[in-house]
Specification:
Oligomer: single chain
CATH architecture of the largest domain: Alpha-Beta Complex
Number of strands: 2
Strand order of the largest sheet: 1-2
Largest sheet: 2 strands, antiparallel
CATH class of the largest domain: Alpha Beta
Number of domains: 2
Length: about 110
Amino acid sequence: MQKIPLNLAAPEMILARDVFRSESPAGIPVCGKGTVLNENLIYRLKQMSIQSIYVEGHPVTFEGEASLEEQLQDLEKRFSKTLDNRRNLLLLDIYRQQIRCAMGEQGE
């Protein structure tokens, strides 16, 4: 799941969270989780002054953002001195899965 500015939204992206008129999810959602975006819907959300949305996966790469491979390499480096500890290996695996999920890939 990735939070992106609405101006970077594109058709075929899928909402990962409900969209509300304001940042507070106290009211009725304007669009529901799982909705596939199209040009008309994106236009309507812009007309409602929606600033950002959560979409499935990680479809947008921002300048300076580390790639999946770079993040996993950095994680391995951080754990490199403690790989003989069984609990740390479990934590390493959990973090790997979390990074893959956040970047839009399925866990192993």
